[in-house]
Write a structure and sequence with these properties.
The protein is an alpha+beta fold. The chain is about 40% helix and about 20% strand. A five-stranded antiparallel beta sheet has the order 1-6-7-8-9, with no helix packed on it. The chain starts with 5 loop residues before the first helix and ends in a 6-residue tail after the last helix.
Length: about 250
Amino acid sequence: MARRGPGGQALLPALAWLVLLALLPWWLGLPLLLALAAALLTVRPRLELGGYAGLIRRALRWGLAGCVLASLRALGDDAAGLLFALLGALIGCTLLIALESWLDRGRHPAPAFSDPAAAEPWHELAQAPIGPAVKIIELQPPHWWPAAGPLDDPCGGAVSCRDGSCCFATGERIDQVGAQVAFSADGHWFAAQMIDQKGVILWDRVRNRQHRLRGRQLAGWYQDRPWLSRDDGDMPLALSAVLGHDDEA
């Protein structure tokens, strides 16, 4: 003898339930369906825990069909009876769909990818960089020279420093120079301590601009441009940040 599969075993009770409600008067079947719907709305977590929620849902679907047949049997098989039965079926289906939609709220199925390889693994997403890449700035310490006697100019020629002034072979002169001076690697910047040791003098030789910054010291060079700090423990800042505008653009 052939054995029924799980689908056939579930179909027989559903058909029996449909036939039962079709044979009962509609005014008995309708309260039964309303009671089942009320149970889903009030004690659904407990029913789901016991595995009865799905069974009640199927009972509502099949029972609605049985109740419609019962109402059709009661109203007669004329046009008016058929119209009222169809109207009742429409209202019942609408309420049942609304009930199941409300019960399934918050349950979102996992998105299906047509190409599994297109779905990036979660650990790669977690390790992906967020935001702009961090730039590590390493300053080149300044090499200080005594501001006394002649000095070699990285741009050519010699620099003569004496009595608080430094004179360049090209004719420029920087006054109120302190005890030490320094050049950037390309020679485009000249730095000198102030004569009172309370600040730094910077000369942009390309643009021919001088900056006398009190309370600052030369922390180092980055990309042959000066970075300044207030003291040895202070965080260095680019000259443009110290001046408050993009002077070095």
